[in-house]
Amino acid sequence: MRHLSWSKANRSFNAKFRMKLTHMLVFAALFGGGACQYTYGYFNWLSRIMGYSRSYSNRYFEAELEPPLPTDCPAECTCPRIFPKAMYCDTRRFKYIPKVPARMKYVYLQNNQIDGVPEGVFDNATNLVWVVLHGNKISNEKIGTNVFSKLTNLERVYLDHNNLSTIPFPLPKSLRELRVAGNMISKVPPNALEGLDNLTMLLLNDNQLEDIGGSLKVLKSLSFLDLSNNHLKKLPDVLPNSLHQLYLDFNHISVIPNEYFKQFPKLQYARMSNNELTDNGIPLNTFNVSSLIELDLSHNKLQKIPPVNENLENLYLHANKIKEFTVDSFCKTMGWMSFSKIQVIRLDGNSIRQDNIPPEMHQCLRRARIINI
């Protein structure tokens, strides 16, 4: 009997609690902020709590108001409601650039058959921030003279893998990232990049460059520069001292000027694999740069390990002609507080014999996790 009376009391309490909770929820729904016009109706979430479906609740309560659909999006493109300032027209075999609505900031036109960017094509959307045009057939002759420079908020232009023979000019001063990789660019005129003080990333890889000269020195904020897979026979004469990453893989460079890398106090990543570097072409302290964290000299013609700074963490020397392991290339002195910070070193694909490795190697490279010899 005691158990039954307890159950009956418990059911009575639960019923009263649910009734009070329902009253509270109704009160919150009625007075909890009617200003949200374009959101789900308050009675919708209340009906879900009470076990009704949304369609059932709408028969008894006010219809939910939805935001109006934009009508300015080109029919051949997609303008998602969740990204109201982005227009997606990529991979649709377009041969032209559709009209861009004024509200747009991001336009994706990559992987089409567009061969030109005519003057005035973006005049309706002057607030564009990104213009993505890689993987098309665009040539310099069919780019309007001021088509990009008029976009004063433009930060990124992707023109890689087109038919460009030179960098489009002029470009807006607001530009931060320029990608023109995979084209047919053979030279960079001295004035092509003037005024781009905010440019931090420049991709010129996979082109036909033979000499850069000093055309990039005007880029005061440049941090990332990719010149890999070109036809460079020497290093650029002058580069911005703001560089953080420099990629020169797959060229024909055989000589590095004395103290060349000392001009880049912020440089942390340098890659020069697949070139024609020899011991004679590398001055003694070329890579003794305290800022360097990663250095890639693989697939060259080196016979000795060049001296590196003790702060270096990753060193790639595989596929050279190195015959001996020289500890003093990493550690000038050895002790409790004097050792190399290298964590990864690759020396496979050389001619180093295991019995030629000095025992002090492990004391010098005590932080190394991977040593491939």
Description:
The model is unreliable at 1-9 and 25-64 (pLDDT under 50). Strands 1-2-3-4-5-6-7-8-9-10-11-12-13 form a 13-stranded parallel β-sheet, with no helix packed on it. The longest helix is centred in the first third of the chain and has 30 residues, at 2-31. By secondary structure, it is largely without helices or strands. Helix 4 (361-364) links the parallel strand 12 (344-346) and strand 13 (370-372). It contains four helices and 13 strands. It is elongated and about 75 Å long. Helix content is 13%, strand content 10%.
Give descriptors for this structure.
13 strands, single chain, 13-stranded parallel beta sheet, elongated, little secondary structure, 10% strand, 373 residues, disordered N terminus, 13% helix
